[in-house]
Each structure stands twice: as structure tokens, then as C-alpha cells.
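Look over both lines:
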Amino acid sequence: MAASPVQTPTPTWNRFNELALEVHPHHTNNTSLLHTNTPQTRQEMASHLDSDRDLCNFRLTCHSANEAVDHDNYSFWRRRFMSTFEKPSWSSKPNVEYKRQYKRRKNALLYGARFDVAIKFARAKEIPKAIRALEVLKEMLLGMKPSLTPRYLDRTSS
């Protein structure tokens, strides 16, 4: 009885090369492949990356990959935002706002509202993170426009 081979996940870099070879099957030099493609091709490659960590690693591979993600007036970020979150009430804003709000929402949702940590371990720095997470959830649930200055930080309203 032969043991079945264990399948290991494909490393991110191999996924880039496989996708790039589908786009340019005649290309044999994988090390310079990202430099020969158009920004749109590199954006397409980036759009197939599910995790933000993979996207960050892709941007670190070379200058052209990094610039391609923000190429075309940040249109990549509008598409990434819309594939992750629902259409916002402020959808007429420029694409750079989609980038900012994508990062803001992902960071807030990543850390979550950890009031229990703040109270149990007396970690005051957790309270603003928790408040930001709750504000993002409120905006998402109610379809509100993101506030530039949260009320608890706005000292002019008192």
C-alpha cells in the first residue's frame, strides 16, 4: 500500500509566474517577466491575490509591480474595495478614497473591538482601536459616510 503524496500549497511567487505564463506563454525568463508586462497585466495578477499579505508581498517584488497597483488613478483599489465590501453611499468619491477606506476597514476589522483586553489587562491603547472598529462597523451597517474626525476626538464641538 503506497502512501499518497502530500500536497503542499503553491507559494505565492509560483502563482505569479503561473498567471504570467498564461498571459505570455512564450516568455521563458521568469525573473524579468514582471518587467515586460503592462501595468494592466500586473494589476490583473494582483487582483487574483486573496490575502492582503500576498498583495503586499507582490508589491515588494519590484518597482513596476508596486506602481502598477496604484496605476490608472488607483482604479485597482476601487475594484478591490467593491469585491470585498458592499457599494458605499459615497461611491462618487475618487478612487484614492477607496484605497484609504479599504485600508481603514481592513485594519479596524482585523483588530476588532477588544474592550475586554483594555479592561482586563489595563491596556488603554486598545480603547481607541476598539472605538475605530465599532465606528467602521457602524458605517458599514448604516451605510454612512466615513467621518473624518470622530466625535470623541473633535474638541471644537464642545
